[in-house]
Amino acid sequence: MATSPSWCSSQDFWLNNGLLIPAIGIGCWMGTPGEGEQVVAMVTNALALGYRHIDTVGNEESVGKALKMSVRARSDIFLTTKLDQSDHGRVEEALDRSLRKLGVEYVDLYLMHWPMAFNSEGNATSTSTLQPDESPTFVETWHEMERLLPTGKVKAIGVSNFSIQLLTKLLAHATIVPTVNQVELHPCLPQHSLLSFCAERNILLTAYSPLGKHKFADDPDIVDIASKYSVLSGVPVTSAQVMLSWGVQRGTAVIPKTLHVARLKENLELVHLTAEEMDILDRLHKKPGMHRSVCGFHASALGGSCFGWTYRQLGWQMTTGGVHL
């Protein structure tokens, strides 16, 4: 009789403040900011299937609508939202606005979405993005986030898109160590050094785009591993399940997204990879042309940049287009 390959759909990770975060979540960023019924449907379906970790940005009203429709208790859901770059100078005001949109009294995790702040124009050109030494700096913004914890409006705070370089600077001035650093993370951008750095400081890495936007899902090594477990279990195992298994097994939370109910279910069913298979995926990025970002936020301006900061300022070892050096 066929058996499910699932092994850790209910696994949690401990954060450094004693809070538990589900290892597998649903990411709600749909590529562009804005609300929509597809977000409502995705979150509604995810909660019905047993997802307990919802990560939102830019579509909080839609997520809030799904939360209101769900029979799940608020205390059973780990809810993450983010501070936008345009709100670095008004942190609590921005959080209050997010809470109203979500229709909740608190979020479990509040992340600084990016280290750079936008000026009053609020857009992302090299002239309207504040530079690292311009106020509010990410250190100043972090201090404002630290002051949210006693209010009860957040249970944990963290950062997103922070490199070792930026984390080192932040930690030198922080009173509270971030619980989470959410970054692009998949076999073609494994960020091994960042993972080690964060693990040593008890900061959990959460992977967005953990499937690499499916740009290398047909890699022969990934397909071979998926085929092996399909035979062993008697049920189909996908390349996506293999990549998510790798992510969780190496100690990172993962937040894939999909509008398809069948794939939502599959993404909760992971396999236990062998040490050899983990090593194969750890080294996948070493194949020619594979070590790169798959996200669309890279710009050729300034010799390679993102939202007005150069790769050097971000601490990213990349060249134009997000290709890793």
Using DSSP, what is the number of strands? Answer: 15
Q: Which sequence of SSEs, written as H and E, runs from N to C?
A: EEEHEHEHEHEHEHEHHEHHEEEHEE
Mean pLDDT: 93
- How far the N terminus sits from the C terminus, by CA atoms, comes to 48 Å
Structural class: alpha/beta
- Cα Rg: 19 Å
> How can the largest sheet be summarized?
8 strands, parallel
Stretches where pLDDT is under 50 for at least 5 consecutive residues are 1-9
Q: Helical element count?
A: 11
Helix amount = 25-40%
Shape: globular
Main sheet: strand order: 3-4-5-6-7-8-9-10
How much of the residues is beta strand, in percent? 5-15%
Describe this protein with a few key phrases.
single chain, 325 residues, alpha/beta, 8-stranded parallel beta sheet, disordered N terminus
Describe this structure in words.
- The protein is of the alpha/beta class and 325 residues long.
- The chain is built from eleven helices and 15 strands.
- Strands 3-4-5-6-7-8-9-10 form an eight-stranded parallel sheet, covered by helices on one side.
- It starts with 11 loop residues before the first strand and ends with a strand.
Set out the fold topology:
Blueprint: E1 12-14, E2 20-22, E3 26-27, H1 37-49, E4 53-55, H2 60-69, E5 78-83, H3 91-102, E6 109-112, H4 138-146, E7 157-160, H5 164-173, E8 180-184, H6 192-200, E9 204-208, H7 220-233, H8 239-249, E10 253-254, H9 261-266, H10 275-282, E11 298-299, E12 305-306, E13 309-310, H11 311-314, E14 318-319, E15 323-324
Parallel strand pairs: 3-4, 4-5, 5-6, 6-7, 7-8, 8-9, 9-10
Antiparallel strand pairs: 1-2, 11-12, 12-13, 14-15
Helix pairs in contact: 1-2, 2-3, 7-8
